[in-house]
Design brief:
Elements lengths: L2 H14 L12 H10 L5 H14 L3 H16 L5 H19 L7 H4 L7 H12 L8 H10 L7 H11 L8 H11 L34
Helix pairs in contact: 2-7, 3-4, 4-5, 8-10
Length: 219
Amino acid sequence: MKRDQIFEFFRRLAEDNPSPETELEFGNTYQLLVAVVLSAQATDVGVNKATRRLFEQVKTPAQMVALGEAGLKEHIKTIGLFNGKAKNVIALSEILVRDYGGEVPADRDLLTELPGVGRKTANVVMNCAFGAETFAVDTHIFRVGNRTGLAKGKTVLAVEKQLEKKAPQPFRVGAHHWLILHGRYICKARTPECWRCPVADLCGYKPKTPAPKGKAKAT
């Protein structure tokens, strides 16, 4: 995909959704960090259901430590891998209290030192909480990047590096949100809905999915 096509790709996604946001629910940066850690191999919908009551009770790392691992498990037991996630959330909360005065550091390298926080999680927090131009590559972005030709790579890091190189201003901060939402709702894994895709003519995916009967094509 050429530079002018990439600009147009993001321009159209931005036109459809001018202010993209994560679909995870949170009230502050700490809650965002916890939600993203919990979202690994889980849906945002499932995480939100589990954290609504939790986040009414827990707003700070100190409150999480006071709740304890057993108490946290009761809130998140509907989420996959909840035992390991609970252990990590309590451990990272203890570190935030001990080393950072209860605040979440605005530094990707420091974030990735926390238990349960990988590069993708750190990128989400840096972007959503601190407005950094980071690209959190999940399965949706990995698929969209490779399928469309926007950012090809054999690994999530390779796709991230391509996006860092190619994503233009003024779309860099919102880029990963647009790509996630596009992959979640239109450029789906099994059957991409090419017939209603606003960027279908820019996309390198050849076997375009036709519109089902009674459905209109995107204009």
